[in-house]
Amino acid sequence: MQAAESWAPEQSAWMSPAAHRLASLLEGLTEQQRESVLHRGSPLVILAGAGTGKTTALTRRIAHVIASGDARPDEILAVTFTNKAARELEKRIKKLLDDDLNGLRVGTFHAVCARMLRDYSDLFNVSKDYVIMDSDDQKRLVKRLGKARYGKIGAEKEFVEEVMALIENARGNPAESEKVLSEANHDTREIYYDYDEAKRQDGTLDFTDLLAIVTEGFRSGAVDPQQIAGAWKHIMVDEYQDTNGLQFEWLQYVVGNKPDLAVVGDDDQVLYSWRGARIENILSFADRFDNTRIIRLEENFRSTGLILDAANGLIAKNKKRLGKTLFTKEDKGRPIHVRWFVNADLEAKWVVEEIKSAIENGIDPTDIAILSRASHALNLIEQKLTWAGIPFVLSGGKRFQDKAEIRDAMAYLRLAANPSDSSAFDRVVNTPKRGMGEVSIKKIIDAADKAHKTGVPLNLLDIAENFARSRALPGDVPGRLLEFVQAIRSANALFWRGADATDLLSHVLDVSGYQDALQNALAEAKSNGETTLVDSLQGRSDSLADLIQLGKGMAPIQLIEHLGLSEDGRSRNATGVWVGTIHAAKGLEWPMVIAAAWEENILPSWQALQEKGDMLAEERRCAYVEITRARRQLTITATGERFMKPASRSRFLNDLPKGTYHSFDMQPEEEFAEG
What is the pLDDT of residues 484-502, one digit of tens each? Predict the structure, then answer.
């Protein structure tokens, strides 16, 4: 929706078809959007705030450049970050123009570089039939290399993600790669080098290689950038705030001395520094490109006035920014609701009841989103949505009961309730590591199965104990197996004494050593500075705390049935309440948003609180992005206890200007109980 005062061409008695087409490309635009479309002759930064119509400005600019005759389609390059964005941009341009757009180059950095390497393979000294690895191929290679060097732990998801982050960050910022590598964990760094060697031996390239080879060719002087890119008169880059050092260097070579470079971005929405994005690229753009003009798109067509006032007040606390103030000509709307809960369980109950009420009052479930900085902070909400039968779309990741740590814990609970459960035994007898091999585990399960069939009164634990005492296992493995047997027997005794699921889970995860192993791994990751691994392990620990909380007052068998037999609440046709992280929600919007878990160590994150500085500023940008996802109604929640630990309210709540929100102290009330 555009403002009524938007620019429109003056009416005249007659207008040529060409002039009419040019005028139509400016219709409905704000003055700032219009200036973005018309500007020529010097570099341009379109500083586009959330919901200000940046894509409209960019597509109209490209269409206007073509329609005005300033450049042919084959003299224009438009660079995006995703193939989806490239397709959408091209589709919208074609809708604006009836012309033959043959030769118009719209693509990602990687796709444009891949084309350069194919077309000029001899100059870059690469084979025309090189093989490109996609991100899934990369992960599989890293997993294989990790397993070869470090065993099973080297193939775990957290370790693979840590290596992938290092690869992207170190190679995406060449000037800082030495520092990034020197600060990396030793094990992660070794796989980084193994990865490079494996690619060399296999003769494959990944996406970053495409950009790196082209840029190195330009940098070394072996290839003249203008021989390849000289035909492009107009160059445009979308989501410029997310560029890394390598992409910026490539862009400088491609642009050369051409004045018509236009970038679109928002320094207040830089959320990916951990994977190499450099906010300096947009902040210092005017210092790198002479005669730069900055046009601010500030009129928001998405949110109500009070939501925007809150977002402006919050982000103004960041010092490193170009500065802009979002506004709307629409009404001020409802104040933001900030609700304080005693604990996360009451928060989840209220969220479900609030959504039930909204749906009953005619709001479509697809118009509602539940967001959080950390996905595991949504565990309880996800479960209660499932149990309430409310359809939802879980953006990325596994559902709660499919997470490895939850499956482990539930296997322990099942074994405590039934020591003859062979599948549960198989999953946890060597989790955490007790030195048990697959062959030994199979022998125990087979022996128990044989005993059952022949009527011998021995269960799995009896067989395991006999196996341990037979000294058929090496080293200290027999002793560790006996400790496992004793732990499950003590848990089984507690089960028969009528313990609820919470008490039984707490006991069995403690005496089995599972919790200790997880906490020790977390402490080691923190001491080694492995932030991705810390995130993952902390998420596992917090998910276990939520599971234990879920079992309060429930019999163990009830919890097992709830998680094992209940239908997955996620919609099969991708419709329903949207549930996900702030990062996954970037670029999306909903009439009704619930922003959960505004607490210290979540928003801002634990890592940001340790490092402060730029990381804390990025966390504030996360909060800003979350607020600006809401169109009409925004509720922020915080609790005094989460993951069975005390929680404190986020410092960012203090940044919200007075008058933009109402606070509610949500004491336990019967209406929030599960129906």
Answer: 999 999 999 999 999 999 9
Same fold across 17-125+210-301 and 315-399+568-672: yes
pLDDT (tens digit per residue) in 306-325 = 999 999 999 999 999 999 99
The conformational region for residue 215 under phi > 0 = left, psi -120 to 50 = alpha, else beta, is alpha
DSSP 440-472: HHHHHHHHHHHHHHHT----HHHHHHHHHHTT-
Amino acid letter, 121:
S
* Residue among 239, 257, 280 at smallest CA distance from 42: 257
Long-range own/partner contacts, residues 658-663 (CB < 8 A, 24 or more apart): 659/306, 659/309, 659/335, 660/306, 660/307, 660/309, 660/310, 660/313, 660/335, 660/336, 661/306, 661/310, 661/335, 661/336, 661/337, 661/338, 661/636, 662/335, 662/336, 662/337, 662/338, 663/338, 663/339, 663/340
> Which DSSP letter does residue 207 get?
H
Single-letter code of the amino acid located at 41: G
Please provide the CATH number assigned to the domain covering 315-399+568-672.
3.40.50.300
Residue keyed to tokens 């030495």? 178
- For every residue of 70-84, which 3-state class applies, written as one string? CCCHHHEEEEECCHH
| Angle, in degrees to the nearest 10, between helices 404-417 and 556-565 | 140
At the topology level, CATH places domain 404-559 in PCRA; domain 4 (1.10.486)
Instruction: Provide, rounded to the nearest whole percent, the portion of the chain with pLDDT above 90.
Output: 58
Please give the pLDDT value at position 653: 97
Enumerate the domain spans of the chain.
17-125+210-301, 131-202, 315-399+568-672, 404-559
How many beta carbons lie within 10 A of that of residue 7, not counting itself?
18
Whole-angstrom Cα distance, residue 67 to residue 56? 16
Q: How far is CA 312 from CA 14, 60, 87, 327, in A?
A: 45, 27, 32, 9
Q: Respond yes or no on whether the N-terminal peptide bond of residue 9 is cis (omega within 30° of 0).
A: no
Helix (H) or strand (E) holding 579: strand 577-581
- Can you give 121-156 as a three-state secondary structure string? HHHHCCCCCCEECCHHHHHHHHHHHHHHHHHHHHHC
Which has more confidence, 24 or 566? Answer: 24
Reported pTM? 0.85
Burial degree of 613 (CB within 10 A; 0-12, 13-18, 19+): exposed
What residues contact 369, with CB distance under 8 A and at least 6 apart?
Answer: 577, 578, 579, 580, 585, 588, 590, 592, 593, 594, 629
* Axis crossing angle, helix 207-220 with helix 157-172, rounded to the nearest 10: 20
Which residue in 283, 279, 207 sits closest to 244, CA to CA? 279
Backbone angles phi, psi at 268, to 5 degrees: -85, 0
| Homologous superfamily in CATH for domain 17-125+210-301 | P-loop containing nucleotide triphosphate hydrolases (3.40.50.300)
Alpha-helical regions (H) of 256-343: 280-283, 285-288, 305-315
